[in-house]
């Protein structure tokens, strides 16, 4: 496996970090730092986040200046300051985890405290929640969200006008069960967008609760450490800021995915297939895990050949999948409307280099464009087609390697989910959580965790707080890369460049025990 056991033993800790071996108190200051950070995010988002076109809170009142000119610049500065505090607190918490100084409870408390201010925040780094409400409104008023976009609504003007222009006329790419949930939310909040966003977050907490319930049990089966898993999967910026602060329906899908995989590890295969199928009805990505469940089921059958066991498990899985899929679709839409499959192509309208094949296509186009006036679309289309073939080959190989079932099948499913997020257009930052949540329950090496820090910070920042991409603002991206690398280095060594110690006098940290005093210099 790519992840191996984390050796957080005393012998593995370098001399400067030996002070971490002292048992720790509860990390109140670190938790408070992150909470202050998300509070700043919440306040600054009123001017720099996914704000409403007609805002009943600020509107044109005395505080509306925060959305224009220097006020907006100040809001952005406060927002990024809040983000820096969250990352600082998360990395600091990670150092305590790696040193074995805190258990899972402080991490869980930290994550919940960091999320709490964002419950009432405007959307952060995305406007997708407005699309959720628009598509739910379509279903509520008898329209087909898989045929047209929210622009066809002639009611709820606040809902319609706040949907991003790209998705105004685009069919929904989500599963029918999630549209039913969105319909229920809109039936309560109607044209009140603030209430709609808050209630969406409250509902998505169901997915977070399921994930929190499953993670400790997944760790026992997969050999990881619960504090590390919680730090990676629950307290990270991708979860706190993207999935919850966004918010994104991936959070609910992950709840069904993790509990379904856990059920398979506990040999409750019927429950596993049902749960993952329900997750697929929320967001189709969960379907990637279903073929791996077949191997897990077959591997624990006895009395027959492996081939017969495979076909027996496959037939049973299909026999469970079909009625759940049909019933879920019928209950959600009132008919067996399979139009949502065509809606899966809608996100492919997003084209940027964060998606690896799209970036390759754009790079080749720019080189060719130096000598010939050509369009970029053929290059991107060809690169995406090649990537799709590569993804299919990779997925089939991972599925075949998972035939022994058990933890190996879960690992192969997780890296396949990551491959789908990277190679299938589009690649959006929060898509990486699909695989990270499962992989977090495996053993980890410190350097790999450092890489995760870099990726987490990078993908959170490559979109502006308004939800528009920043990927072609090259100076901004250069700063993001530097910040991400510094955060990654800080996990392994506090203040790796000495930036903090350079301007403040050393003082005793009440949370950390004092470092051993240096020997006195000899006198002449």
TrEMBL record:
InterPro entries: MptA/B-like. The chain crosses the membrane at residues 31-53, 73-94, 106-125, 193-216, 228-249, 269-298, 310-333, 353-372, 379-401, 413-437, 449-466, 472-492. It is found in: Membrane. It comes from the Bacteria. GO terms for molecular function: glycosyltransferase activity. Pfam families: MptA_B_family. Keywords: Glycosyltransferase, Membrane, Transferase, Transmembrane, Transmembrane helix. GO terms for cellular component: membrane. It is a multi-pass membrane protein. The keyword Lyase does not apply. Belongs to the MptA/B family. This is Polyprenol phosphomannose-dependent alpha 1,6 mannosyltransferase MptB. It comes from Amycolatopsis carbonis.
